Amino acid sequence: MFRKPLVVLDFETSGMSPEHGGRVTEVAAIRIEGDQLTERFVSLVNADVTIPSFITQLTGITQAMVDQAPSVDEVIPKLIEFIGEDYLVAHNASFDEKFLFAEAQLCQQLPRHRGTICSVKLARRLRPGFESYSLGPLALRLGIKFSGRAHRAEADAEVTAHLMLNLGQHLIRSHSLQNAQIDAIDPELLVQVTRLKATKVPTYIASWCTESVVAAATLHNSNTGKNKVQIAEPKEQGKQFMNHHDHSKHEPVNVPAPKPIRFRHYKGGIYELVGEATQESDLSPVIVYRSHDGSMWTRPRAVFFEMLNIDGRQVQRFTQIEE
């Protein structure tokens, strides 16, 4: 179902915000590969913090439980390693990702996930009109059962994982993917859908399907002369691309090939530039790039180099790695 792995993350915490002293008390991360839950990382966490009584009433996590748990300095690096460069999913993702980055910073670690998908936003856009999008009511509405106590990390992460599978099946059945004979969902599509208004989702998905079919035809039929996207060699664009050495005819044939041009996504993923292309349908420029697993991606050039406002700080979506 999903073309690339997703890691569903859920934290239980001692407070609502790391800015106000909240710390992680429990973590669960479950990997989805295709349509299967394949791996999980679960641990209580000792962050040397006092557990408020209302947190114990809500979650069942007591002071004694966290006092005997592995230290946060031990758990968080293992969690970041478990997530790796996969896409991150969480129900109300801004909450969990905020704690992930805060705890990682305290441990002098840097998360490397390539993108974040909020299952609340995704459900709102793919299944509009529900009374509630809180995890419990939403799971009940969709017939997803908890296998453990709600408000415990593993139970919540598992339900969120099954929610993602449910939404993926709905997306394939109810939108243009089935008509386009696309049965593997690109997680980047889900990232983009969460940024749209619900009314714009069907049109966007239809457009994405068309572009995916064109890209697939380009990559697999590059020798047929029927490409819809013309891929150019990497070239200089202001300061965005490194200059390639122009070998003259007098240089020996065995001159080493230039190093690949690599970019770091602002979330931490690393990608290699393949080239620039022109979309035949509207002659718009796109960037063609390759992920670490060899899969090929395209993105409009303006979006590839877009500046984003993250916590009041301007960052570029993709930044060239100087080597």
Automatic annotation (TrEMBL):
Highest taxon above the source species: Bacteria
Pfam families per record: DUF1653, RNase_T
Tell me its EC number(s), please: 2.7.7.7
Q: If you read the UniProt record, what top EC class would you report for this enzyme, in one word?
A: transferase
Provide the Exonuclease domain boundaries: 5-173
The reaction(s) this protein catalyses: DNA(n) + a 2'-deoxyribonucleoside 5'-triphosphate = DNA(n+1) + diphosphate
Q: Which SMART domains match?
A: EXOIII (SM00479)
PANTHER family assigned to the protein according to its UniProt record, in alphabetical order:
DNA POLYMERASE III SUBUNIT EPSILON, EXODEOXYRIBONUCLEASE 10
Stated name of the protein: DNA-directed DNA polymerase
